[in-house]
Amino acid sequence: MSLSRIAVAISLVFSYPLAFVGLRDGVVDLLKIKPTPKTQNVLTVSLLSLVTFAALVIPDVSFVLSFGGATLGNSLIYVFPFLMFRKAIMNKPDATARQKAEVKFAGVSAFLGVGMGFLGAKMAIASLG
């Protein structure tokens, strides 16, 4: 059991920086910031402060998991495939009427996925209090 705990600790210590660099680079791309060493340092300290504050304030990790599953999971399952499918079909000059109808059906599915995401997020937030 002690060996397992040590292995988990090593895994966390060495995988967190990899995930954090991905987060930082994603924020840089999203905000269209020029990545200079000074801006990266400021962004790193800011994001680490935000993550640490969230860890201190959120009492239960199950909230983070349920909220992330409700929002990101539904986006990954319903919304992103619809957006990719729509772009692939609409950029195709010889798209058939059936393919365009499938895009509309996928849009309805994505809309329902967004609704389920909101419902799941609302339930996750309600579980806090």
Give a short summary of the structure.
The chain is an all-alpha fold and 129 residues long. Helices cover 86% and strands 0% of the residues.
Give an overview of the whole structure.
The protein has helices at 2-31, 37-57, 61-90, 97-126. It has two domains: 1-57; 60-129. It is extended and about 60 Å long. The protein is mainly alpha-helical and 129 residues long. The relative contact order is 0.09. The protein has four helices and no strands. Helix 3 (61-90) packs antiparallel against helix 4 (97-126).
SSE layout:
Elements: H1 2-31, H2 37-57, H3 61-90, H4 97-126
Low-confidence stretches: none
Strand/helix succession: HHHH
- Shape, per Cα inertia axes: extended
- Measured distance between first and last alpha carbons: 35 Å
Tell me roughly what share of residues is in helical segments: over 70%
Structural class estimated from helices and strands? mainly alpha
% residues in beta strands: under 5%
* Assembly status: single chain
| Main beta-sheet annotation | none
Rg for CA atoms: 20 Å
What average pLDDT do the residues reach? 89
**How many strands appear in the DSSP assignment?**
0
**In total, how many domains does the architecture comprise?**
2
Count up the helices: 4
